Structure formats: C-alpha cells, structure tokens
Amino acid sequence: MKRLYIICFVLVVGLNVHADERNSGSLLENHQAVHVGIVVADLEAAIDAWSKLLGIETPPGIVVGEGHGDNPTHYRGNPSEAKVRLAFFNLENIQIELLSPLGEEPNHWAEFLAKHGDGVHHLAFRVQGIGEVYLDELADRGISLAQKGGWDGGEYIYLDTVDSLGVTLELLERYEQK
Amino acid sequence: MKRLYIICFVLVVGLNVHADERNSGSLLENHQAVHVGIVVADLEAAIDAWSKLLGIETPPGIVVGEGHGDNPTHYRGNPSEAKVRLAFFNLENIQIELLSPLGEEPNHWAEFLAKHGDGVHHLAFRVQGIGEVYLDELADRGISLAQKGGWDGGEYIYLDTVDSLGVTLELLERYEQK
To answer: A127, B92, B131, B154: which could form a disulfide with A32 (CB 3.0–4.6 Å)?
Structure first.
C-alpha cells in the first residue's frame, strides 16, 4: 500500500512538472523550440550548403525515418507507408532538421514540397503525453492533425496550424526510459 | 601613441572574437539562430494564435519597421519605401518574429506572401561588420542579396539561400554602442 502511495506521488509530481505551462493556458509544456524542420528536394545538396555555411568539415549522416509498429504513420487520417530521409545540424540553441521525402506514398513533407518547393516545414516542441493528453486537448481547441507517426522510442504529431500560427507545429515526444 | 596601441589592440582582439567561427570556414560568427521570421497576411490573428499557444495573457505590441536614412531599404538592388508591421514572442531559446508587409512598395515579405501564403520567411543570425566584411564575402561565395535595410541602431540583409539552404538567411547587426 505504501508503495502505491509512492507511485501515485511520483506520478502526480511528474504530471505537474509537465503541466506547469499547460496550466497557465499554454498548449505547450515549455517554450523551448527544439528544432526547425526544413523540407528539401535534394538532401545531399542541402547538407553540403549547411555544412559550408557552418564551417563543418564532416557533414552529418543521413537516416531514414518511417512508421513503427506501435506508431504507424497516418497522413490526414489514413495509414501511409511514407518514408523520409533526415539529417540534423546542431546549432548552439536549436537543431536544424533537414527532411526529404522518399518514395511515392502520400505524406505531409511531399505535400509541402509540391506546394512550396524547399522551405521551412515545421517548428518542433517537446511534450509528454501525446496519446493521453494532447489528442483530446487538440480536439477541444479545434486543431486538426496533418500527420502522426513515430519510432521505437517516441512519437510525433504535425498540427494544421499554418493558417493560425503561420507554420506547422510539431509536438514531439521521447518516451522516458523505463 | 600609447593610446593608439591600446585602440589597435582592442580592435584586433574584438575582430578576432567575431571572426572565430568565420576563420574556421563558417560564413557566420556563431551558430546561434536568434529568431525565426514568419510572414503572415493577418498579423493580429497570428498574434492572437501565438498568444493562445503560449498561454500569454498580454500579447506583444506591434511596431512598424521601415528604412532609415543611413540604411535605406533596397529590394533586389532597387530602393524601396517598404514598410512592415512586426511583433515578437520570446521563447526560451529563440525569438519568433511575426512580419506582415504594409503598403504597396515592393519588398521580400510581400514576394514571399504572394508565392507561398503565410509561412516561415527567414532564419536570423547575429553578425558584426555587414558593410565592411560580409558584402565582399557573400560576393566571393556567390550568394546574392534579396533585400537590405536597417534602423538607427543596426542593419540587416536577407540572402538568396532558399535554393541552397531551404530558407532565406538573415544576417542581423546591432551596432555596438559608442
């Protein structure tokens, strides 16, 4: 019974920490933007240009992002086998995420690319509780999902916020290690 | 004579500090992005949406940016009387700059808005020496200017880097106080 109390206490304290900003009326848990996501058609050329801009001799590697069994990709409500090639540059205060869609499956990156060409696709904030808290909260606020997906260690959602904020918002969750 | 030596020493040390990153091959003096510039058609609506997102009860004020006698606005090489309405949100690690072009004078914000609608227009880095160093350096690197301008305390340039970096780069200089 004592153990149960301790677990409850930890859970409540943990939720309060995460909810501090949210209790103040913010959708977010903190006001720290973790990355700027830039969609490009030619990933290698963009990596080269960013490396030259920053004076980086060893460019970052490319990883492939795709849906995961627990968090399959859904684009505008429909399942999608979309893949994306990714590269990251760590600035001092924020990360640059370069994204280039791979293959023909419909997805939000390709939609952006077809509409705008290369450009800033999203601004990301880290949160906890996408599945438990945010999906309800977003429905209450009338904000719809453009895409969702994840990997074995976390999940993300892209929100339809271009018409309100001027940019797609990404909420990004990394599961706390058990 | 001693005073001259001291002034020279201070100047050399000062230039070295600014040039640290640049000596390593970077175009920039540091890797800290100071703001994300988002162009919107309806500034009041965007301020309201960002305030709600962040849980801010008192929204930031709107200021009008326009060319200054010492740093008149030039858009694609031609003088322009362009004006822009601005509002700033301070996140923990970076600033959000909302921009909405004002009037009919040609400018880079209106060009972006006509082409893309609301969206992220630029990513800004702070530098020193735009007039003395950067304009030559940019010419050497084959990077052209989209727009330049300033105010009584500083100046900025927007670079044509969408095709290479996927986003317009802004170099922003605040003059050191004399």
So the answer is: B92
